[in-house]
Specification:
The complex is a heterodimer of chains A (about 350) and B (about 210).
Chain A: H1 4-12, H2 42-46, E1 57-58, E2 64-66, E3 75-76, H3 91-94, H4 104-108, H5 111-115, E4 125-128, H6 132-140, H7 142-151, H8 153-178, E5 182-186, H9 199-219, E6 224-228, H10 237-242, E7 247-251, H11 257-264, E8 269-274, H12 276-279, H13 286-300, E9 305-309, H14 321-336
Parallel strand pairs in A: 4-5, 5-6, 6-7, 7-8, 8-9
Antiparallel strand pairs in A: 1-2, 2-3
Helix pairs in contact in A: 6-7, 6-8, 7-8, 8-9, 13-14
Chain B: H1 3-12, H2 19-28, H3 33-52, H4 58-79, E1 89-95, H5 102-113, E2 117-125, H6 127-136, E3 140-146, H7 153-165, E4 172-176, H8 182-187, E5 192-193, H9 197-209
Helix pairs in contact in B: 1-2, 1-3, 1-4, 2-4, 3-4, 3-9, 4-5, 5-9, 6-7
The chains are: A alpha/beta (about 350), B alpha/beta (about 210).
Chain lengths: ~350, ~210
């Protein structure tokens, strides 16, 4: 039987996997972390995270995050009192990236959890959020951000360059200290039905920054870039390939994943196709989960596909849903890998 | 091309800096304010249709709505003296437990661009807040409720139930959001469902005319 990491590599390389990769199993490396991936470092530790039901808090970029007790996740607050950047042309005066100059002793505190990872079985996986696009709309609010691509494109490019530069310097630090094998990076690029930006606009603003950022990780020995984007983005896959994304996690069913596998399999792999919106519901049943997992596995097959809930990390909103999906994937493995 | 037609064309392509001047030129040419407004509404219908068809994306829709808003600013002093062109008031909000505002904001803009007076009550709104907004605003013809999470589908039902049970009448209810389906909308007693912002504006006009 292949290890979890071997089985994943066989799957995405079109080799001989002996079962389906079961959701996040190959990236589940840190039992103390909420998503099972490495989430702790000195920079993250200094950036307050709001907890459910707690008062809103400002993160390292000055973005206020709120998490009311009755909602499933934290959100940036963009009313007039809290929006960080109200005029994109003033970004140089307003936007201040978090400091990165922490002493080595601060980094060393996080190393025991890295050393404890069984690298023969799972990948040393670093969780990253937000992405470049998300960082922009966290600072500006979505509406202002999207309008600014038209009205102030040069200022937007300058701000993107500033954010990317910070992310590159952060990438150097985590590579120096943690030597991650996989980067699991969030950046949602669409809605359920379409990409937020046209492919042309996406290419103009984001292709090169992402090539630079993900390219750096690859130069430093990172084996896999897994990019989370639980949205429609089938029209952006050629750019994902150019950015050196190995696995697109979060590809929702509206992308017609089986078509994407036929078209792009071998250049990129797809992880998802089991939408939270379809199975992660108050009235979920094992039969409902079984139906969606079966469809995903049968349609997409054994190569270049990892059946997975589309949300960007291990777990689900409703208790039991994630484990129910895992059980059905195991059943499909027994059926399809005989 | 008459200036009023140019206004429409420039709204469609989102020329925020050009539209106000063109609106003034159309007025100078003798067009009535309400006709110019209608030309811009027609332009936004084209934008909504193109968005629904996947021909344009969110920034293009936002920039067109902004161009129209700039044009409306020029018309405002005149529109208040002419007969009302409003289709009525629309109360819009995202239901309790849901902080998503992008879809709601887009629908707000598109329904507003179709000729409704919009009252945006924001995100994470209880059924009581929807009812309060319906009561405290005049001529409410439409209530638009948004939910983006599977966790807030029950809140969407609760909101529609509460509005119905309040006994308030004279308006239709439209619902939408990623996990909402036409079947679900029907089950919870909504009058209409729209899959995206472009079609929401058309649905809104159709159901209040029915």
């Amino acid at each position: 039987m292949l290890t979890k990491r071997q089985n994943l590599l066989e799957t995405i390389r079109g080799g001989n996997p002996d079962r389906f990769v079961n959701q996040y199993e190959a990236f589940d490396c840190d039992p103390r972390s909420p998503f099972g991936m490495i989430m702790g470092d000195p920079i993250a530790a200094a950036s307050p995270r709001v907890g459910r039901g707690e008062p809103p808090a400002k993160d390292g970029w000055g973005v206020t995050r709120a998490w009311p007790a009755n909602v499933p996740g934290a959100f940036p607050v963009h009313d007039e009192a809290h929006k960080v950047l109200k005029d994109i042309t003033q970004w140089e005066k307003i936007v201040k990236a978090p400091r990165l100059d922490y002493p080595q002793s601060e980094w060393d505190k996080f190393k025991p959890q890295i050393d404890a990872i069984d690298r023969s079985d799972v990948f040393v996986t670093l969780f990253g959020a937000p992405g470049i696009f998300e960082q922009l709309h966290y600072l500006m609010g979505m509406d202002d951000c999207l309008i600014a691509f038209y009205e102030e494109p040069e200022a937007m490019k300058d701000l993107i360059a500033y954010v990317t530069d910070w992310k590159l310097r952060y990438a150097k630090l985590v590579c120096d200290n943690f030597a991650p094998e996989v980067i699991f990076q969030h950046d949602d690029w669409g809605s359920h039905r379409s990409s937020l930006l046209s492919p042309d606009m996406f290419e103009e603003f984001f292709l090169e920054p992402y090539k630079k950022w993900y390219g750096y990780y690859k130069q430093r020995g990172v084996q896999l870039i897994v990019h989370h984007n639980d949205a429609y983005s089938a029209n952006l896959v050629p750019f994902m390939i150019e950015m050196k994304i190995d696995i697109w996690q979060g590809c929702v069913t509206t992308n017609k994943v089986s078509d994407l596998i036929r078209k792009y399999g071998g250049k990129i792999s797809f992880m998802g196709d089991i939408d939270n919106g379809l199975v992660d519901r108050e009235n979920w049943t094992q039969e409902l989960v079984e139906r969606h997992v079966r469809r995903a596995c049968e349609e997409n097959g054994k190569h270049y596909f990892i059946p997975c809930i589309t949300q960007g990390g291990k777990g689900a909103v409703y208790d039991g849903v994630y484990d129910a999906i895992s059980r059905e994937i195991d059943k499909m493995s027994k059926e399809m890998f005989r | 091309m008459a200036k009023i037609d140019e206004v429409k064309e420039q709204v469609i392509i989102g020329k925020t800096k050009i539209v106000p001047g063109l609106v003034q030129e159309a007025l100078d040419e003798g067009s009535a304010a309400k006709d110019i407004l209608q030309a811009m509404i027609d332009g936004m219908k084209v934008v909504g249709d193109r968005f629904s068809a996947g021909e344009i994306y969110v920034p293009e829709m936002l920039i067109a709505a902004k161009a129209m808003a700039k044009g409306v600013e020029v018309l405002k002093p005149l529109l208040s003296t002419e007969a009302s062109t409003s289709l009525g008031t629309c109360v819009i909000g995202t239901v309790e437990g849901d902080l998503h505002d992008i879809g709601k904001n887009l629908v707000n803009m598109m329904i507003g661009s179709a000729g409704f007076d919009m009252v945006d009550i924001g995100v994470d709104q209880t059924p009581a807040k929807f009812i309060e907004a319906i009561k405290s605003n005049k001529n409410v013809k439409l209530v638009a409720c948004s939910a983006l999470l599977t966790t807030t589908l029950p809140a969407l039902k609760k909101t529609v139930d509460a509005i119905r049970e309040s006994g308030l009448q004279g308006f239709k209810i439209i619902v939408g959001g990623a996990p909402v389906t036409p079947k679900f909308a029907e089950e919870i007693g909504a009058d209409a469902y729209a899959p995206d912002a472009g079609s929401a504006a058309e649905k809104a006009k159709a159901i209040i005319a029915a």
